[in-house]
Specification:
Layout (H helix, E strand, L loop, with lengths): L1 H18 L6 H40 E5 L1 E14 L1 E7 L5 E6 L7 E2 L4 E5 L2 H35 E3 L4 E6 L6 E2 L4 E18 H4 L7 E6 L5 E9 L4 E2 L5 E10 L9 E6 L2 E2 L4 E12 L4 E6 L6 E2 L4 E5 L2 H30 L1 E3 L4 E6 L6 E3 L12 E16 L11 E6 L6 E9 L4 E3 L2 E10 L11 E18 L8 E5 L16 E5 L1 E5 L3 E6 L6 E5 L1 H13 L1
Antiparallel strand pairs: 1-34, 2-29, 3-24, 4-6, 4-23, 5-22, 6-21, 7-20, 8-10, 8-19, 9-18, 10-14, 10-17, 11-12, 11-15, 12-14, 13-14, 15-16, 15-17, 18-20, 22-24, 24-28, 25-26, 25-29, 26-28, 27-28, 29-33, 30-31, 30-34, 32-33
Helix pairs in contact: 2-6, 3-5
């Protein structure tokens, strides 16, 4: 209570002092208060005016800072775009490695030529003379070799060590590399698989026998019977035991494995029995003997190996003759190679077209000198240029992010700046996986074949191409720029926009997650999270600049 009283007293004190002020000062105080009220009113009006202007400007900035996009259903085609330069499917820039005067040039610019047609024929007298001489060299070398080979052939039989009979090598008397002289025993050959039995038959019986006739052989001591064939019949008779005339007959049998030269047997042929028995002998027991001298260069058998009649088991060398033959063979090969090279060079003096096509340029003619590869390589320096325009092609670079979508056979839509309003089609022909990397980004060359080879397209024309990856059909879409990072969109809600479509309250917009599908150059498919007709707001580059400017002024 005391505090209240003090305050009241303190507040009342000035009123007492006012009453003491002379009366002529009271009107001044009243005029000063009125002026203050008027100033405050003016200031308030100015503030209201400024606020209204700022709010209007703010609404204008907000409206221009966002662009509205409506989610709509549209037919979408997924494609990948690029550019390229038209080229003929084949081009032949005539070049040559030789020099000389042109004798023939039977074609003109604009003319159609075919593969193999003669374009230029160049004077080749020097090469032709060289070919004649080289041909003579080849003939001479061939004759020299033939003479040496004939000499070698004559001595070949003696140098070859040949088995006269079939059998098994029971013993080798030499080794490979040994020096051999005529008469040297090379190997023993024994045929144990076949046995012979030579027995006498009465001459009257033997007169009716024939070589190859079947015979029956009985092995003494075992009683076993073998079947054989008549191998030989003696030409003359002999006097046998008791003064009878007999004739020796040799019978060949297969050895069952128990017969040896100590085994005896008898035989009968056509019911006629032999006059006496005899011991079996091996069918062949022979030696291979050298008939010439030389080193044993080849020995192709070892003890226990079987050989056939006429088989060569070794070869003796003739060092001097072999060396001469080898040198003659090398000389012939060199002569033939020189001739072939000259003939190939002669072919270079006739230049033919490697493709079917149209002559685009003819820069040399009859009487001109062609100067090999001394040309600079520029197009105008080629003797002739031929284009095959039966099909046109171009190459376009595809970004690494899109190359996985490209496949051979996909349709391509083509336009050319030089042909306003005209469009063409083509197909993807090749995909080159050898990419080119620049600034950390890789692109891959894709070759396109133009359909129909349109005459309006000329080699060198620049074209724009769109590879059709997929015809998606009708889907819900938004412009690509309407979708923000993280696959979110800003959807306008009630109160966000006025009737004119201007953004008036950005706080009324809703951020929403959407699921994206396929896209083309301008639009992207929305598979979920958005309905047809909903409006999406996306920042405008111009509006963003205005906001930044206003914030800078503030």
């Amino acid at each position: 209570m005391e505090a209240t009283q003090v305050k009241s007293e303190t507040a009342a004190a000035p009123e007492k002092e006012v009453k003491k002020v002379p009366e002529f000062r009271a009107p001044k105080k009243k005029r000063r208060w009125v002026k203050g009220v008027i100033a405050l009113a003016v200031l308030a009006a100015i503030i209201v005016f400024l606020l209204s202007r700022c709010m209007g400007a703010g609404r204008q900035i907000i409206s221009s800072a966002y662009l509205p996009y409506t989610a709509t259903i549209r037919d979408m085609t997924v494609s990948v775009s690029g550019t390229g330069t038209i080229e003929p499917i084949q081009a032949y820039n005539v070049t040559t490695l030789i020099s000389g005067e042109i004798l023939e040039a039977p074609f003109e610019e604009g003319q159609t030529v075919h593969k193999g047609d003669v374009l230029f024929r160049i004077d080749a007298k020097d090469v032709e003379n060289s070919i004649e001489q080289l041909t003579l060299n080849v003939r001479s070398a061939q004759l020299a070799l033939d003479d040496l080979l004939k000499t070698q052939s004559d001595s070949q039989k003696d140098r070859n060590l040949t088995a006269e009979d079939a059998g098994v090598i029971t013993q080798l008397h030499v080794e490979q590399g040994d020096a051999i002289t005529p008469g040297t025993v090379i190997a023993d050959v024994l045929d144990r698989d076949h046995m012979k039995l030579e027995v006498p038959f009465h001459a009257a019986d033997a007169a009716g026998f024939t070589v190859g006739q079947t015979a029956t052989v009985v092995v003494n001591g075992t009683g076993s019977t073998l079947t054989g064939t008549v191998d030989e019949i003696a030409a003359t008779d002999q006097v046998g035991a008791g003064g009878t005339l007999v004739r020796q007959v040799t019978i060949l049998v297969n050895n069952p494995g128990v017969l040896s030269e100590t085994t005896q047997g008898t035989a009968s042929i056509g019911g006629a029995a032999c006059a006496a028995g005899a011991n079996f002998t091996y069918a062949a027991s022979d030696q291979i003997v050298a008939k010439a001298s030389g080193d044993l260069d080849v020995l192709s058998v070892k003890e226990g190996d079987r050989v056939s009649t006429g088989q060569v088991i070794g070869v003796l060398s003739e060092t001097d003759l072999d060396t001469q033959i080898e040198n003659a063979r090398i000389a012939l090969e060199n002569a033939q190679l020189s001739l072939e090279n000259a003939q190939e060079k002669l072919d270079d003096y006739t230049i033919t077209s490697t493709i079917d096509g149209q002559v685009i340029e003819k820069n040399l003619d009859v009487g001109d000198n062609i100067n090999g590869m001394s040309n600079s390589g520029a197009a105008e320096s080629y003797p002739a240029v031929i284009y095959d325009r039966s099909q046109l092609t171009f190459e376009m670079e595809i970004d690494e992010q899109d190359i996985s979508q490209i496949q051979v056979g996909q349709k391509v839509e083509i336009t050319a700046d030089a042909l306003d309003g005209e469009s063409f089609t083509g197909v993807v022909d090749k995909i080159n996986i050898n990419g080119t990397t620049a600034s950390g980004h890789t692109s891959y060359p894709v070759t396109v074949l133009v359909d129909g080879s349109p005459e309006e397209l000329y080699p060198g024309m620049n074209v724009s191409a769109k590879i059709i990856v997929e015809q998606v059909g009708s889907v819900l879409t938004l412009p690509v720029e309407a979708v923000e990072r993280g696959n979110t969109v800003l959807v306008a809600q009630e109160g966000c926009m006025d009737e004119a479509g201007n953004v008036v309250d950005i706080s009324a917009a809703e951020e929403r997650q959407v699921t994206l599908g396929r896209n083309d150059d301008n639009y992207i498919e929305i598979t979920s999270g958005l309905e047809e007709g909903e409006v999406v707001l996306a920042p405008s580059p111009q509006g963003s600049n205005m906001v930044e400017a206003m914030m800078g002024m503030g």
